């Protein structure tokens, strides 16, 4: 890789920088998030790709302190008192249910969730995906109809202080293969900076 080209520790202001800036935040200020920003996050989510372009997602925005407190009681994965939570759900009624495809909903939800995490990062909002919760309790609390399946929660809020999660990643050579498993791509090592494990 040419040294003038962006690499792991060479910011280029592009999407890769934003992707690498995102961290899971687990300490938030008490400042509320503007309604418009919350809707902007949903906007990011609904522009994600989905299997057969089904767009079966449903996003429940929770920012009422009463509901947040109740949510935290049944979702131990929510840490640090977020100002809001977005529940990413998939509507399994109609076509999705008829297809009987169990694999697409979590994939679709994950695509939407990552869009939300990245847009939050761009807005200076801290976020954390949360899968540790009691699904029936959360669904009941949010009043989800039976056909709406909860896939993931996203905790959101302005970060309180520096984010201390290690940013280490496995090396490029450990994760990337070229054409066949076990064959490392040429130049993989150039992507390994001091943030590798
Ligand atoms: C599917 C999924 C579920 C997760 N569930 C939780 C959770 O319940 N609670 C939590 O604090 N973090 C949760 N995380 C965040 C991971 O711990 C975090 O992404 C990982 O440690 C890497 O750190 P980073 O996000 O700062 O890069 C989850 C992440 C994913 C992708």
Can you lay out the helices and strands and say which pair or pack?
Elements (H helix, E strand, L loop, with lengths): L14 H7 L13 H12 L10 E6 L2 H10 L9 E8 L3 H5 L4 H19 L3 E5 L4 H7 L6 E10 L14 H4 L22
Antiparallel strand pairs: 1-2, 2-4, 3-4
Helix pairs in contact: 2-5, 3-6
Bound molecules: flavin mononucleotide.
Describe the model:
There is one protein chain. This protein is of the alpha+beta class and 197 residues long. It folds into 2 domains: 140 residues, 3-Layer(aba) Sandwich (NADH Oxidase), CATH 3.40.109.10; 32 residues, no CATH class. It is built from 7 helices and 4 strands, in the order ααβαβααβαβα. The protein has a 4-stranded antiparallel beta sheet, sandwiched between helices. Helix 3 packs antiparallel against helix 6. The longest helix has 19 residues. The mean pLDDT is 90. It binds flavin mononucleotide.
């Amino acid at each position: 890789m040419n040294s003038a080209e962006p690499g792991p520790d060479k910011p280029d202001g592009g999407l890769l920088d934003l992707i690498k800036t995102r961290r899971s935040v687990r300490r938030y200020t008490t400042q509320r998030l503007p309604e418009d920003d919350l809707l902007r996050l949903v906007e990011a989510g609904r522009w994600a790709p989905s299997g057969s372009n089904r767009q079966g997602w449903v996003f429940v925005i929770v920012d009422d302190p009463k509901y947040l407190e109740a949510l935290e009681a049944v979702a131990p994965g929510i840490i640090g008192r977020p100002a809001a939570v977005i529940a990413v759900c998939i509507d399994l009624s109609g076509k999705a249910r008829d297809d009987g495809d169990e694999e697409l909903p979590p994939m679709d939800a994950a695509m939407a969730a990552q869009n939300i995490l990245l847009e939050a990062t761009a807005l200076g909002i801290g976020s954390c995906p949360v899968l540790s919760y009691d699904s029936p309790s959360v669904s009941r609390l949010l009043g989800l109809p039976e056909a709406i399946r909860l896939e993931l929660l996203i905790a959101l809020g302005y970060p309180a202080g520096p984010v201390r999660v290690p940013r280490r990643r496995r090396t490029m050579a450990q994760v990337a293969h070229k054409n066949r498993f076990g064959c490392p791509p040429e130049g993989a090592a150039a992507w390994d900076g001091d943030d590798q494990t």
